[in-house]
């Protein structure tokens, strides 16, 4: 462990010195007073400094790499490919910033972006950054109610959206979802700007909805192309909502200064990228991977980033990823293991790889869910490049644990995302925050302070930040993941400790789904668990206990429950199975035994907890699961 060990130790000896040195790669309009300080008990990085994220992502590169592609949009859905140079993207972003400004958006205002994977989504994000406005991108697979919850929490001045998104075989009209969300929300944005796609035209509400193209034309005609507005390093760049333990998502805040420093550091040292290289994160701008590694990281570093609209399979086939790599000379691909499981299922022998020249590809990075050894080894064989599992969260914004190929490629241990990155001192502890010995599973925690780039707090909710992340293990950040460290310091992440599940790399709350199901008029109580799924990693299953006196067929209520989750949370929940059961297994104190139910569903060995109210209920659950094809595995 030469360069990795040397770098990690250097950070550990002098964290502030380490990050101050990393900060030299960023342009600042005013330097910081302190590298690390505290404000009401919360860490602040680079207080006193002023900077602009858009400047660092775009403008500063125009002089040196103005003609280089900054963004390549490749849509497997429409067959369209369009490249934007740094100069062109800067112009578009400045113009759209002018359009936002015409609607009164300025420093500190919030803008929600509800967009499919089109370049306008990236333009809107960077235009907000240019003005010092705070963007909040909402993933397109969420339904109106989820969007409404975010509108009420973020209170945006304006919403940017599109007429539609494209899913295989169907056009998803976004505008009716947006209209419905605005109807549901208590907060009303003063305007929306809608990008009309050729596949569907949205009806615009006069006086409230404005057409993207018209707004760009007006800004151009008025010569509006505002310069980058300096903001405090500690000012928020964005709020990204992520699933918590309830139906109310958490607004993860990202600041401007620390975020740039941390992401820029990772591009070279973790991902091994040089300016001019092509980086492809096959994710969605609605997730943190999209924020950090479709948009910000690659652009800070002067790379070319790929914005891919499509799926790993079926658009048109399991060779799409290889086509994109070959067409654009991708050096590193980052996606979720589930995408590779999907490809492997369609093309188990990786025959389609042979049709493409993948010689530019140097590394495949996987994250978002546990990287199962089978998938990793299959990808290694198929591509002949190192396959790097790495572990992080929406909250941290960049990898906590990785194999830092830019420093050195450490030996790969299957099932482990490898070793802690600078910024993260990882511990595995018991419930009393006592360190556990190597190879013993416990809660994974990070010693405070968190590094730059990590969430400084939750949006307008410092108390929620403290209680969710800092209260349980004093002096540590709670990751809510469980696992162990081996004798070489490699981490193994095994499961969540809360009711978050990971479905096709998408983070979802079973608690949130239970809240929706409980709203069904015939449901007395319910439980949702995540069960193992060969393709998506996990999928949710709901158990429903029906109110006494309801005599409708169970199958009817089950169907309504499935439809209700799709309507209230969205298709992304992949909620397809609801089962009516006579009762739920509980402890004598009334706690539902979700963990035991999951083990039964996954066909794992289970024992009846001593505190159970009535052990027979677990057999009933087993029978119910058997009826829908679960619980039979070894
Ligand atoms: N807008 C509207 N609907 C969406 C959507 C969007 N942006 N994204 C997904 N959906 C819909 C899908 O069409 C699907 O609908 P269906 O129930 O009618 O079939 C549903 O939400 C579930 O989506 P998903 O779980 O993604 O399943 P899928 O079958 O469409 O695709 C994979 C499965 C594995 C191919 C896909 O999830 C994938 O590529 N994932 C890995 C990459 C990734 O995005 N990772 C995120 C973090 S790195
Ligand atoms: P998200 O916030 O959507 O990025 O989801 C973060 C969660 O996904 C983590 O807390 C883990 O539970 C899981 N996760 C992400 N990456 C990995 C990984 N490489 N191995 C295991 N679990 C992971």
Automatic annotation (TrEMBL):
GO cellular component, as recorded: intracellular organelle lumen
PROSITE patterns (alphabetical): AMP_BINDING (PS00455)
Protein's organism: Parvibaculum sedimenti
Pfam families: ACAS_N, AMP-binding, AMP-binding_C
GO molecular function: propionate-CoA ligase activity
Domain Acetyl-coenzyme A synthetase N-terminal: 4-57
Annotated AMP-binding enzyme C-terminal domain residues: 513-591
InterPro entries in alphabetical order: ACAS_N, AMP-bd_C, AMP-bd_C_sf, AMP-binding_CS, AMP-dep_synth/lig_dom, ANL_N_sf
Name of the molecule in the record: AMP-binding protein
Residue ranges of coiled coil: none
Family statement: Belongs to the ATP-dependent AMP-binding enzyme family.
């Amino acid at each position: 462990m030469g360069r990795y060990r040397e770098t990690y130790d250097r950070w550990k000896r002098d964290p502030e010195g380490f990050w101050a040195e990393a900060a030299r790669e960023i342009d600042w309009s005013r330097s910081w007073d302190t590298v690390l300080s505290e404000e009401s008990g919360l860490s602040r990085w680079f207080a006193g400094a002023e900077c602009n994220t858009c400047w660092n992502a775009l403008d500063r590169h125009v002089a040196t790499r103005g003609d280089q592609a900054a963004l390549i949009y490749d849509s497997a859905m429409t067959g369209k490919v369009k490249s934007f140079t740094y100069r062109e993207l800067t112009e578009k972003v400045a113009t759209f910033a002018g359009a936002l400004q015409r609607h009164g958006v300025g420093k500190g205002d919030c803008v929600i972006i509800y967009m499919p994977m089109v370049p306008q989504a990236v333009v809107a994000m960077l235009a907000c950054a240019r003005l010092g406005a705070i963007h909040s991108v909402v993933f397109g697979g969420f339904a109106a109610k989820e969007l409404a919850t975010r509108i009420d929490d973020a209170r945006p001045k304006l919403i940017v959206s599109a007429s539609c998104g494209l899913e295989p075989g169907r056009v998803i009209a976004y505008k009716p979802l947006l209209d419905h969300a605005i109807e549901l929300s208590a907060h009303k944005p003063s305007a929306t700007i809608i990008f009309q796609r050729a596949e569907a035209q949205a009806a615009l509400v006069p006086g409230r909805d404005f057409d993207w193209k018209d707004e760009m034309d007006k800004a151009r005609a008025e010569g509006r192309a505002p310069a980058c507005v300096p903001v405090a390093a500690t000012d928020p760049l964005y709020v990204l909502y992520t699933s918590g333990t309830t139906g109310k998502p958490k607004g993860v805040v990202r600041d401007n200064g620390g975020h740039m420093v941390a992401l820029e550091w990772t591009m070279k040292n973790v991902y091994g990228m040089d300016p001019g290289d092509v980086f492809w994160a096959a994710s969605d701008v609605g997730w943190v991977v999209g924020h950090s590694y479709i948009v910000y990281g690659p652009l800070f570093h002067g790379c070319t980033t790929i914005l891919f609209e499509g799926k790993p399979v079926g658009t048109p086939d399991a060779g799409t990823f290889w086509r994109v790599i070959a067409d654009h000379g991708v050096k590193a691909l980052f996606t979720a293991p589930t995408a590779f499981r999907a490809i492997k299922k369609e093309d188990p022998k990786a025959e389609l790889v042979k049709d493409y020249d993948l010689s530019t590809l140097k590394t495949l990075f996987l994250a978002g869910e546990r990287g199962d050894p089978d998938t990793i080894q299959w990808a290694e064989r198929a591509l002949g490049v190192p396959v790097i599992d790495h572990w992080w969260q929406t909250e941290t914004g960049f990898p906590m644990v990785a194999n830092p190929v830019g420093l050195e490629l450490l030996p790969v241990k299957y099932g482990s995302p490898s070793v802690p990155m600078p910024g993260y001192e990882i511990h595995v502890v018991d419930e009393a925050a006592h360190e556990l010995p190597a190879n013993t599973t416990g809660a994974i925690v990070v010693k405070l302070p968190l590094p730059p780039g990590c969430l400084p707090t939750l949006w307008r909710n410092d108390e929620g930040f403290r209680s969710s992340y800092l209260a349980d293990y004093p002096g540590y950040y709670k990751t809510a993941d469980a696992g162990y460290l081996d004798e070489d310091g490699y981490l193994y992440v095994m499961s969540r400790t809360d009711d978050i599940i990971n479905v096709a790399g998408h983070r979802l709350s079973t608690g949130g789904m239970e809240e929706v199901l409980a709203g069904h008029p015939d449901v007395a109580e319910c439980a949702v668990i995540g069960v193992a799924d060969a393709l998506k990693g996990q999928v949710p299953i709901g158990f429903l206990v029906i109110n006494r006196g309801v005599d409708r067929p169970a199958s009817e209520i089950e169907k309504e429950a499935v439809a209700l989750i799709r309507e209230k949370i969205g298709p992304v929940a992949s909620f397809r199975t609801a089962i009516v059961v006579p009762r739920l297994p509980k402890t004598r104190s009334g706690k539902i035994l979700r963990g035991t139910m999951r083990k039964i569903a996954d066909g794992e060995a289970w024992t009846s907890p001593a505190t159970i109210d009535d052990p027979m209920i677990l057999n009933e659950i087993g029978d119910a699961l058997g009826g829908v094809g679960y619980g039979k595995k070894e």
